[in-house]
């Protein structure tokens, strides 16, 4: 099965960078807190997909070696997707340049994201899985 997309839990210091999704009824989880990432473009590896989407959505250019944890899973829609984690210095918050998708971005404690009623549920689950490894 080919993968369809990838997400990145991006820590800037101890906090997680999150993106508020657009509030349109025709998208999954409108107005929820999301993580950088999205759909695969032709020929991309899971890592390339997550890194490209992160650069497009928040302007941060990371490298594959910056990805410290990865897992694949089946999404609620039945697609194979990837979930990555990267820990970067808090000072990178100054380099964030929000892209054209979503309503804005914020930093959130990882536990707060996992418990937030507007967190995308399966991304909160993936993040909890990672946090349990620490």
TrEMBL record:
Cofactor(s) listed in the protein's UniProt record: Mg(2+)
Keyword Hydrolase: yes
Location of the Nudix hydrolase domain: 1-131
One Pfam family, short name: NUDIX
Keywords (A to Z) from UniProt: Hydrolase
GO MF annotation: an example: hydrolase activity
Keyword Hydrolase listed: yes
Family as reported in the entry's similarity comment: Belongs to the Nudix hydrolase family.
PANTHER family the record matches: GDP-MANNOSE MANNOSYL HYDROLASE, MUTT_NUDIX FAMILY PROTEIN
Protein name, UniProt field: NUDIX hydrolase
Species of origin: Aliisedimentitalea scapharcae
């Amino acid at each position: 099965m080919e993968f369809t997309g990838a997400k990145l839990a991006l820590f800037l210091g101890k906090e997680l960078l999150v993106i508020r999704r657009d509030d349109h009824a025709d998208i999954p989880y409108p107005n929820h807190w999301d993580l950088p990432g999205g759909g695969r473009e032709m020929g991309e590896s899971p890592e390339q997909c997550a890194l490209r989407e992160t650069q497009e959505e928040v302007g941060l250019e990371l490298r594959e070696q910056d990805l410290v944890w990865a897992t694949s899973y089946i999404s609620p829609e039945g697609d194979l997707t990837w979930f990555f984690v990267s820990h970067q210095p808090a000072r990178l918050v100054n380099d964030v340049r929000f892209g054209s998708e979503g309503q804005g971005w914020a930093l959130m404690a990882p536990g707060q994201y996992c418990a937030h009623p507007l967190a995308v549920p399966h991304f909160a689950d993936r993040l909890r899985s990672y946090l349990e490894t620490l």
